[in-house]
Amino acid sequence: MGTALEGLKARLTDVQSLRSAGGLVSWEQQTYMPEGGATTRAGHLAILARLEHEMFTAEETGRLLDTAERELDGASYDDADVSLVRVTKHDYAIRTKVPAALVAEISAETALATQIWAKARAQSDFNAFAPSLEKMVDLTRQLADYLGYASHPYDALLDQYEPGTTTADVVEMFAGLRRDLLPIANAIAERKDSVSDAPIHRNFDVAKQKTFTEQAAAWFGFDFKRGRQDQSPHPFCQSLSPDDVRITTRFIPNFLSSSVFGTMHETGHALYEQGAGLGGLHPILASGTSLGVHESQSRMWENIVGRSRGYWSHFYPQLQALFPESLSDVDMETFYRAINKSEPSHIRVEADEVTYNLHIMLRFEMETDLVSGKLSVKDAPDAWEERSQGYLGLTPPDHKRGILQDVHWSIALIGYFPTYSIGNLLSAQFYETALKQHPSIPDEIAQGRFDTLLGWLRENIHQHGRRYFPQELVQRVTGEKINSRAYIAYLRAKFGEIYGF
Amino acid sequence: MGTALEGLKARLTDVQSLRSAGGLVSWEQQTYMPEGGATTRAGHLAILARLEHEMFTAEETGRLLDTAERELDGASYDDADVSLVRVTKHDYAIRTKVPAALVAEISAETALATQIWAKARAQSDFNAFAPSLEKMVDLTRQLADYLGYASHPYDALLDQYEPGTTTADVVEMFAGLRRDLLPIANAIAERKDSVSDAPIHRNFDVAKQKTFTEQAAAWFGFDFKRGRQDQSPHPFCQSLSPDDVRITTRFIPNFLSSSVFGTMHETGHALYEQGAGLGGLHPILASGTSLGVHESQSRMWENIVGRSRGYWSHFYPQLQALFPESLSDVDMETFYRAINKSEPSHIRVEADEVTYNLHIMLRFEMETDLVSGKLSVKDAPDAWEERSQGYLGLTPPDHKRGILQDVHWSIALIGYFPTYSIGNLLSAQFYETALKQHPSIPDEIAQGRFDTLLGWLRENIHQHGRRYFPQELVQRVTGEKINSRAYIAYLRAKFGEIYGF
Hints:
Two copies of one chain form a homodimer. Chain A is mainly α.
């Protein structure tokens, strides 16, 4: 008879296999599934999710965790097994706190609300969505009560996506960010006509875009033997294991950035997942530690590396050679400025590096006020407009381009938005640390070499998988809490130079 | 509280979802999985198979079946619910008879034996595989004992793949087949140089082959909204549901038949699966009723339709136009003869319509003798050679092209081979019946129209899914037992004309 630790590992391997199979089924739904497949696909996903939930939250899992913890008494905090038990206990506690009935109700309501939201957005009709939003706020508040929290119900919601980060942490991060970001955005707005993005909206053959993006992923270090790149309407990264990580890309003929920077973004996620197998961790820990840390990887490769002058000083001639009819009259500097044009806009997913976080701060404030009850659903559209004016200097012309633009609230993802900004802040915080240790990185990028940067990320972040919670990891790697200093310094230097302020 | 029938249906829907998810995972393994995916893929398949087994064989399933049967007392035999209970009881009885320990042992041994077989085949070394074959014979004999049988242990093995068909049935079928087939094969052998297959071994661009095979599948009636066609090393058909049926094709530049007739074959399977949703049956019955009946559909579309003079009289000009450099000097008649060249050969999977069944009869005799103990593993190679000489007039030059050529025995598929021949016999038996009711079918095929034939198959075979066991279905449709008369008549007419005897 084996130890409890062995029993626990076997059980978690099965749980992870079910998650991974579900991931594959979901990936295929978005890539190759024929139209008719939709009739049974929901059933596949539901049964896999249900069996995974039953297996993971079973009392046997709790018993094995407790016994394994005693078996490991005295072992080091960093030990792979100790980490497995610690992190899994955290997950187990969260998932067993919530009654199955509430999970089922949220699942049923989101299925309805997504359809209602899609229709309401198309018709820009907030009133049609208001009852669903009311319901979602109510359900997530119930969820927060079951999960438990110290200060604010939003703490519990945020903790699901960014374990260990509190509402107060985000308030503090965002206070600094707001103070420093708005002057940069304003300085750019005053000079907005000095940069044009017209060149990237010319015509770009999709097959050639595909060729370039496959190379771009490989240049960064994406291992095609342990992954794939396919097409889908919405780009995403799906990891089945560190040895099987898939990214998808969307190709738009007259918008080159969509495929090029979309690929770099998803490659950033994929490199993290492919590297998460390096630390000898149990498969259930061989993945990213949080959405925020994940987003730090995608944003670093997409923006700090991919939208840098150094990168294009090396690769622009190849791009130009691939698209002579669209780029032969565009010099590298003009291209570099085009891909970095910054301008306040209504739609979050289309926002540039500078204004993106303003969208997130707006949503964070909306969400915390809705969850605390300080803001009612009926007053939400006015609050949105007021904040949009304050952050972006824009009033949305309709709800479609305002409060109804994001899918998140219809699928009960309240507490999720801050992770996007955490990712942005961390991308610069990690990169700054990497540069302190390897000042040659920018020069190497300008030579088309990424191995020092990737090696540093693997060593310091990727190989740890989910071993450390995000705040622990950030402290270990950078010696600081998550903060906006490095990110602001990065934006100020880059955009000050581009826009001349 | 619902009825037991409702509970049963819900449970079987979940079972079917797990099977279908497993089918998707398996399909992806053979089409798009990157190399690295192999490390976790076995785990996905194992956990899905285990959970499906647990859910299906649970005592609760048996209880629901018994109660539902009482609830349905007095309802008609053909009723969808009555059929669901009847067929599921048969499946349940089979799967609960075998102890989990034996299932696990077979699974573990086949994993080993497949590797040993692959190496032994490569080296043509029967002695290396002999202990594994010994083990497989022993395990399948144990399996037969648990399953139970009336006359011969082989009955129990065969019944897994062709429910209701006995060893004696096959002996009878094959006796007629042997008597009538050998003279045809001999007559062809005497005239073997009168047909050349050289034209189909010229060069055929793979992209154009793809274009043609996609059209060929659609012409037959394959619905691409409810299915896909992809590439894989070994062609197969995988149904996830009648609304999501996938076929795969292998393209070989200098062997046109591989993709063209491979596609027709898999399309035949796929049409059966796509049509199995028409009868309002529970999803677990919406599939083919046996391997033999399935093969009757693939062989009918591949051989009786696809290798007919009528088909090519209509479509050959299109094929010629697609490959002018390889086919412009080949007239239709020469092409028709080339795709129908018959010649005894060592390898079963490369055999033509006439000689294919000789390979199966050889294997059937080997298997029944091994299972009954009449033949020992050590004497098996001699027995193979003797029978090969008897049936094919050939002695294999090595074991690789003899007793080691098939994967089946290494994966415990003893009792499976006869279903290939049953499919061949049934293809002609069904087609003959269709023609009696619709004599216009051959003329329609010669006009490129397949709707009358497909409509007849849907009405008489496809829509019934697994509602009837194969022998019942054949009796209902053709008024006869499965027999070789129609098939022999078909071969004699077709090959007598081609070879002039």
